[in-house]
Amino acid sequence: MRYCDYYGRVFCQRCHQGARSRIPARIVYQWNFKEYPVSDIAHRFLSDNHQQPVINVSAIDSRFYNRIRRLKKIRELRIKLVHIWSYIRLCNIAKETITKYGNLYATFSTVPNYMLSDADVYSVEDLENVQKGELFRTIAPLVQYGQYHIEGCEHCRAQAFVCELCDEKNDLLFPFQVAYVDRCEECGSLSHKKCAIKRQKDEKPCPKCLRIRQNLERHRCYSEWSLTPIEQQVTMMSSLND
Asked: What molecular functions are annotated in GO for this chain (predicted)?
């Protein structure tokens, strides 16, 4: 009988021929990349899903990024990558821009599509590449050249934000400037971090969130008014005119 470290059970020698594999749970909870004995069925399952992006690190363990410094740095890059791609994919100029790594738009195909839309999802292979430093070497140039293009491209700059608090129109903000800007979790608006800190200190609401709530309230009142009987509307209008 042989023990399978993945299923936590013993198998006969016919079903467990001595294969070894990395265990996803040990990687996530212990950052342990050692290989352990697994049964044949576990080995096939782990091999088949080695490249599947099924590990949402933040959902599994919210402290994971703080425990693993290398992964925390990768997450910062991936957050930037997601925001940068939202500009690059819509920019025709980027499709014609050439960098030392080749066509700027085409270089983004060197990473899986899920990395361009979600900063927290990983496959086991991705975590292995984080540990080896390969994922950093893949993503860092995309972020560097993508950011350089966007900040200098008139088409991309037209999609930039202005600080909701100081309204400084000469200082355009982009969501990938994570060290410089603050992003409202509710409405997605951007502001300078220093402005956001002052707003929070003064206990003031987000200006855009406030406008959204006011507009919703205005539409709600209008909808209620439009559903009232005609006679009541006439009376209300008369009272308003008086």
From this structure: phosphatidylinositol phosphate binding
